[in-house]
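Researcher: I'm preparing a figure for a lab meeting and need a structural model of a single chain. I don't have an experimental structure, so a prediction will have to do for now. The sequence is pasted below. Please return the structure as tokens so I can convert it later.
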Amino acid sequence: MELTAVLMPAEEGGFVALNPETGTTTQGETVEQAIANLREATALYLSEFPLPSGGHPVVTVFTVAEPTHA
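Model: Understood. Here is the structure written out token by token.
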């Protein structure tokens, strides 16, 4: 099963990893460790709460203008 991983730098160092299809979130010191931890957490989640079959989410980026101060 192919799933999505979203990684963001953690404030305390390392990375936070999120799987949007299941909502599982974890972290790791490196990208590789964060993904490995996410894989394990997501597998445990799916053993209890299987996903209905469906398509993949669309992942994109967007820009928000910074507020201007008068």
